[in-house]
Structures are given as C-alpha cells and as structure tokens.
Design brief:
Layout: H1 7-17, H2 29-46, E1 51-59, H3 62-68, E2 71-77, E3 85-91, E4 94-96, E5 101-107, H4 121-129, H5 138-155, E6 161-164, E7 169-172, E8 184-192, H6 205-224, H7 239-258
Helix pairs in contact: 1-6, 2-6, 6-7
C-alpha cells in the first residue's frame, strides 16, 4: 500500500478506498479538494496529532507601545431615532499573531519573580536559609514559595488576554507604559502543523478515514440529484443510502477525534 505523503497522493488514496479503478466516483476534483481541506481543518482543531504546544518569544517594541496608546472608534446609531448616535473607543493594545496559531492559553507574567535582585525576598531566602540543603526544611521553603506566589497572584494578578483565531490578534489588556521596550514576553499557545512540511499527517488513520467519508458523503449527495437513474449496464446507484452511510460514519469518527484533543484546547483564549 502506497503511503500518502502529499495532498495529491492522499486524494488518490481516498478515491481508491471508495472503489475508484473499479467503479466511477461521481465527484469532481474541486469537490474532492474541498472535502480534503475540510478534513484537514477539522483535524487541526480537534486532534492532538496536528497541533503542538508552543512557547513563543515576542519582544515588545517601541512601535507596540506607541500603538497601544491609540484608539479605534466605532459609531452606533439608534434604531428608532437615527439622530441619536454614540461613539465607542477601543484600544489598539494588540500584537499580530502567526496564522498557524489556533489557541492562546496565556502569557508569562511580567513580574521579577525569576530575577536575582538582592533586595528580593526570594533572593534573601535562598541566600540566608538555603546555603546548603540541610540547613532548613524544604517543606517550609516550598510552602513559603507557594504563599509568595499566591500573594503575587492576589496583589499583582495576571495580564488579561483576548485572542481570536480568525482575527489573528493577541490583545494584552494592560498598561504598556509599565513595560519597557525590548522586553520579552513568553506566549503559551497551540500551533497547527503544516502537512506540506510534516507529511506524515496525511498517513494518520483517523484523517484518512474521515476524508474518505466526507468524499463519500459528497458522492451520495451528487447521486441524490439523479435518483433512480440507471447507469450503463442497468445498474442503479442508491445515492441516499451512500449519503446516509457516510453521515453515520462521519459522526462516529468525529466523536473519536474530538476525544483526542488536549484538555486545555477545549477553552480557547
């Protein structure tokens, strides 16, 4: 069996699975391409094999800080009285994201928890209490660290974020004046893999079965337009049955795929 490694060979595999070479598959090339693209899109959103968790570094620039001070204005008109209008302003406190990013989970905080400032309480604890691992209890140290982290969470908090895959913008709802230019932030996110680069995606068993059933459903839908029409040799194709079988199998495969996503992908930032 030839292993599909490109969209073209993947298309050939799907057609062979439906019986191409023995019978005619009444689906156009454009329809097949559409169904394969649909399968890849669904697969990248729900199956862990076509996404990867990433920690992207981004350096805040002076242009980002300047843009965050600007606003976009939206005007609304009252439905009953068109002489009444209202203007709303929205800050441009966003950074553009790559088109391959499908979900943003959060960003690492801007505080100095990981710095070596000699006046920092954590630095003093390490200096005075942990000069060796036998001088103090690690249990007490761990409890203290958790308490300091809790205080930081309550008093400082986390930077609120907003992200939409189709908008392609990561909004950072914070005061950009508190962040200096050339400061790096770490963005925790999910990125979909490009099948043209990682060609083994085309050989995933769930993707192959899902694409085959989508094309089969399209085939049945096409035949439904010519119900009870006999083909050459007196053969009658039952488009409604083909469509129903494909629809039932699609629902079963989608249930399997949706159960194979990362838990934190269910809630997308």
């Amino acid at each position: 069996m030839a292993t599909p490694t490109t969209k073209s060979t993947f298309k050939d595999y799907c057609l062979r699975s439906l019986g191409f070479g023995v019978i005619d598959i009444n689906v156009s090339d454009d329809q097949i391409d559409d169904r394969i693209d649909e399968a890849l899109q669904y697969f990248s959103h729900y199956h862990f094999d076509q996404v990867e968790k990433m920690y992207l570094k981004y350096k805040i620039t002076a242009a980002d800080k300047a843009r965050a001070k600007l606003n976009d204005t939206t005007t609304a008109t009252d439905i009953a009285d068109n002489t009444v209008t209202a203007s709303f302003e929205e800050g441009r406190n966003y950074i553009p994201m790559p088109s391959t990013i499908i979900s943003v989970l959060g960003i690492f905080p801007f505080d100095n928890a990981a710095t070596s400032n000699m006046f920092d309480i954590k630095y003093q604890m390490r200096l005075n209490d942990l000069y060796d691992f036998s001088s103090t209890s690690m249990i007490q140290y761990e409890q203290t660290m958790q308490h300091l982290d809790y205080l930081s969470h309550i008093l400082v908090g986390e930077t609120p974020i907003r992200f939409s895959e189709h908008q392609g913008r990561l909004y950072l709802d914070m005061d950009f004046d508190e962040v200096s230019a050339d400061t790096f932030i770490i963005i925790e996110c999910y990125r979909k893999l490009d099948p043209t680069t990682y060609t083994d995606i085309f050989n995933n068993i769930h993707l192959k079965r899902y694409a085959v059933e989508l094309i089969k459903k399209q085939w049945g839908n096409n035949l439904n337009k010519f119900q009870n029409v006999q083909l050459l040799g007196g053969v009658t194709m039952n488009g409604e049955q083909i469509y129903s079988q494909a629809q039932e199998e699609i629902q079963r495969i989608e249930t399997i795929i949706e159960n194979m996503q990362y838990p934190d992908m269910i809630i997308k930032g």
